[in-house]
Write a structure and sequence with these properties.
With 66 residues, the chain is mainly alpha-helical. The chain has two helices and no strands. The protein is flat, with a radius of gyration of 17 Å.
């Protein structure tokens, strides 16, 4: 039986930075697209990414009961 190996890699940026960069990239991409479904999908994905960023910040906030 073969042992499955896990690929380990070091992330160069914190999750918050990667989320912010991805949201920015998606919004810039949407600006270049003509109105339509593809553009709306990029904007929706950017909003979802920003929501994830805000949730992560909220969960890490010092005032949140643990």
């Amino acid at each position: 039986m073969a042992v499955q190996q896990r690929h380990q890699f070091k992330l160069s940026q914190p999750l918050e930075q990667r989320l912010a960069d991805e949201a920015h990239r998606l919004r810039e991409q949407a600006k270049l697209l003509p109105p339509g479904a593809v553009r709306e999908a990029a904007i929706r994905k950017a909003r979802q990414t920003e929501t994830g960023l805000h949730l992560r910040e909220w969960l890490r906030s010092p005032g949140l009961p643990r």
